[in-house]
Design goal:
By secondary structure, this protein is α/β, with parallel strands linked by helices. Helices cover about 40% and strands about 15% of the residues. It has 19 helices and 13 strands. It has a six-stranded mixed beta sheet with strand order 1-6-5-2-3-4, with helices on both faces. Helix 13 packs parallel to helix 15. The termini are far apart.
Length: about 400
């Protein structure tokens, strides 16, 4: 099957430039393409996974990915998909973010010699002469046309700064620079990047007389309408294990809505389509196997097979009574703190199992708070050192939130 058809079958193609010539373009030989991620945070999140997975499929088909980490464009701020202007980051914050993002993408792509490369657009954008940039690049952009872009039009009522208005020019220049320096002929990105990608394609055509291409992947929402991004209810699901542990990452996927299973298996795993079709065709209790497969495969890609195995073992132990709960997420508390006096309520909040003391009290009153498998009706009960076994004190809040409190220093 041709690459574009494979990507489309897995739900990874939303829009594309040109009149259907992209498929032939991809089959004519190895191509250099790029996907960009602005360094506005020190971790990628679920909203970045779809273009990363598309890039991984393309690399497996023989094409060369350039991962562009926007160290310069992060200082400007992309207005796409936002109702208000981003908070401006310092140069130091962006530089730290660039390093962190570079480490994360290595899980998804092959960066061995001749493979994928990571680039930072600060290397060329910070050196631009403003007057020369306006004369050479700005003259190719029509303000009237820019105002029709979704990312701009959606912000006209709430306000769009001149700083953000420049973003489209800078991203377009990235494409031109990568074409000139690396022979890059294709850009991929999320659906909210369509206007920027089209502008870049047009700029390369105007200045180099060459037809380049672009396509977008869909902005995925769950069947309940939640965004697969950092704005999702309940907090972001990050790729950084310090922000979202491998166990919690696994739990996100295994709790997938039944209606999303087949689509998520296509988008977020490399499983052959025959296996995807088999898993999504199941019903009732057999759906659990499909969700467990999704959770394991997605976690293995992001955090490695060992972490995925540990998360699966912990999940089975906690929810199915199989195996050792020692792989459950842990939170350390010092023996001295316990000896001085600490309540179960305090431990639950400290471990992040509940957002507030009031929520812990509500859980205990409704029978949803457990310690070492026993229901707790008094959240203010003191915890003593004697209650800690070799595996610690296992807390449960509600049906799905577990944490093992262990004695030790943080």
């Amino acid at each position: 099957m041709k690459l574009l058809a494979t990507l489309d079958e897995r739900g990874l193609v939303y829009q594309m430039t040109g009149s259907g010539g992209l498929s032939a373009f991809l089959e004519e030989g190895p191509r250099v393409f790029y996907a960009g991620f602005d360094a506005t945070a020190d971790s990628l999140h679920l909203g970045h996974l779809v273009p990363l997975m598309a890039a991984a499929h393309m690399q497996r088909a023989g094409h060369k990915p350039l991962v562009l980490v926007g160290g310069a464009t992060a200082l400007v701020g992309d207005p796409s998909g936002r109702s208000s202007e981003r908070s401006l980051l310092t140069v130091e914050e962006v530089e730290r973010n660039v390093v962190a993002l570079g480490k994360q993408v290595s899980r998804f792509l092959d960066f061995s010699p001749g493979g994928a490369e990571i680039l930072n657009n600060a290397q060329w954008l910070k050196e631009l002469n403003y007057i020369a940039f306006l004369r050479d690049i700005g003259k190719h952009f029509s303000v009237n046309r820019m105002l029709t872009a979704d990312s701009v039009r959606a912000r006209l009522e709430t306000g769009l700064s001149f700083l953000e208005f420049n973003y489209m020019l800078l991203q377009s220049y990235d494409f031109l620079h990568l074409f000139r320096s690396r022979g890059c002929l294709l850009q991929i990105g999320g659906a909210d990047q369509w206007g920027n990608i089209v502008a870049g394609v047009d700029l390369v055509r105007r200045m180099a007389g060459v037809e380049v291409h672009g396509f977008t992947v869909p902005l995925v929402t769950t069947s309940t309408g939640e965004k697969m991004s950092k704005s999702q209810p309940g907090g972001a699901v990050w790729l950084d294990p310090e922000k979202t542990s491998p166990y919690d990452y696994y739990q996100f996927w295994i709790n997938t809505d039944d209606r999303d299973l087949g689509r998520f298996l296509r988008l977020y795993t490399f499983l052959p389509m025959e296996e995807v079709l088999d898993l999504e065709s199941r019903s009732g209790a057999d759906l659990r196997a499909g969700k467990e497969t999704l959770a394991f495969e997605a976690t293995a890609i992001a955090h490695g097979p060992d972490e995925a195995e540990a998360a699966r073992n912990a999940s089975r132990a906690l929810f199915q009574g199989e195996g050792n709960t020692g792989d459950a997420p842990t939170f350390p508390v010092s023996p001295e703190a316990v000896a001085r006096g600490v309540t179960l309520l305090e431990l639950v909040v400290m471990a992040g199992l509940a957002p507030s003391r009031g929520e812990v009290r509500r859980l205990s009153e409704q029978g949803g708070l457990y310690a070492n498998g026993k229901r707790v009706t008094d959240a203010l009960m003191p915890v003593t050192l004697e209650e800690f076994s070799d595996n610690g004190l296992l807390l449960r809040a509600g049906k799905k939130r577990y944490c093992r409190i262990v004695l030790g220093e943080r």
